[in-house]
Amino acid sequence: MERDPLKAVEQQVFDIHCHPALKTWLFPRYHVYDEDIPRGYDFSERCFVNIAQMQAGNVGGAVSVYYLPEAELETERMHSLLLRLGLEVLRFICPRLPLIIEDKSSPSASFAQLVRYINLFENDVAYAADHIGKKAAVAHSYADLLRLTGDGNTVFLHSIEGTHSLGNVPITDDELESNLKQVFDMGVCQITLGHFFENILVSSSGGIPPKLAGSLGYDPETINTYPLGYNGDTAIKMIDNMLEWGILIDLVHCHPGAKQMVYDRNDLRGEAKRPLLFAHTGVREVALRHCPDMPPKFAAYLPDSSDIKRIKDCNGVLGVIFMDYWLTGHDDHAPSMGAVIETILFIRDVPDSNGKAGTYDHIAIGSDLDGFTTVPEDLGGDRMMKDLFNAIANIPGITSDDIDKIGWANYMRVLKAGWGKA
């Protein structure tokens, strides 16, 4: 049924990409159960993901993404970045840089950091439930997720951003596969293959907006060495494992060659192919509408209509990001809720390979909150999710079922089909 014009909604939401664990990794005194938010620096000062804000915004679940800052963010450049972010950051982070930046001292040193990172967050959520009285839990399987959400918990799932945290050269394929299997067994449901730099599996398409990229001396066109955009047979073997075992693959940050390889490996599975994702993204055509002079090497980072078609063809999903540059091409902290709606409508209207268009079946919310993001001022945190879904509810012709799909049902379908932990 259609909603009444301007009717407010109480929509449950599952955020398919955010970083509630990053603040605790960077700042050990901050936790997911804190009512207050850290202050004194700019990058996310108004929008830290915590259980209280999630509940205030009807965010019943979230994919907790573990991003280990890459070693290529050299200490000198990181200090420059932190100076821009504020003195409180310097005081807390600088002494800890060797602990929180990717460790390449051995092939699996970064993997050991990842395991500690995941365990740190698991302990945080357990403490929230056992000692603070929060109804919160981590789900380690699809059945777990259904049970815990059914009991009224705020539920988190595990995800990894950047496969540099699985290991580094000269790691063997056997050791890399063992690390991958271990995180799968720990409950990781989703992996973003790439990130800001080339890693053990794939080359990068970038992901740092121009202003900050200039400060860091970062150029997305000069950071890759793999001729095809991925690490040959090693990458293919690990992608095949993810598809076979059931780890959802997020293609954000992936070099075009790596994206094509994943599309091809998935297509080879025929009827058994898995849903693929762009879990936290804008859309190239929409950003270029807002900023026609967006530099091509930055616009190319975003998926376009051809990528949306590939996602629809495998019954996957695109999670719309809350980051102004990747929505509009403008890095200005301006209101962007309208651009989120515009992105939703654009994805809706791209036809799949059979010419079917006009449905909301492949859209979700992947906010990327608490990453190093410039957040639109009207989307500053989970507490504002209600405002967004009230705006979505007033899209002409949208139905209750459509809003449910965007809020949670599409991602639940993808998890059921793509996560091997039933």
Give the oligomeric state of the chains in this entry, treating copies of one chain as homo and distinct chains as hetero.
Answer: single chain
Helix content: 40-55%
Shape: globular
Radius of gyration: 20 Å
Output the helix-strand order: EHHEHHHHEHEHEHHEHEHHHEHHEHH
Q: What's the number of extended β-strand segments?
A: 9
Give the full name of the CATH homologous superfamily.
Metal-dependent hydrolases
Instruction: Tell me the distance between the termini.
Output: 32 Å
The largest pleated sheet is described as:
6 strands, parallel
Number of domains: 1
Number of helices: 18
- Class from secondary-structure proportions: alpha/beta
Mean pLDDT: 91
Q: In the CATH scheme, what's the topology name?
A: TIM Barrel
What fraction strand?
Answer: 5-15%
Would you kindly provide a written description of the structure presented here, covering whatever features stand out?
InterPro entries: Metal_Hydrolase (IPR032466), Pept_M19 (IPR008257). It holds the Pfam family Peptidase_M19. The protein is of the alpha/beta class. It has a single domain, classed as Alpha-Beta Barrel (TIM Barrel). 42% of the residues lie in helices and 11% in strands. The protein has helices spanning 22-26, 51-56, 75-85, 87-93, 97-100, 109-131, 142-150, 173-185, 210-216, 232-245, 256-267, 284-290, 296-299, 305-313, 324-328, 337-349, 385-393, 400-418, and strands at 13-18, 59-67, 136-138, 154-161, 188-192, 248-250, 277-281, 317-320, 363-365. Strands 1, 2, 3, 4, 5 and 6 form a six-stranded parallel beta sheet that branches. Strands 7-8-9 form a three-stranded parallel beta sheet. Strand 3 (136-138), helix 7 (142-150) and strand 4 form a beta-alpha-beta unit. The longest helix has 23 residues, at 109-131. The chain is globular. The protein starts with 12 loop residues before the first strand and ends with a helix.
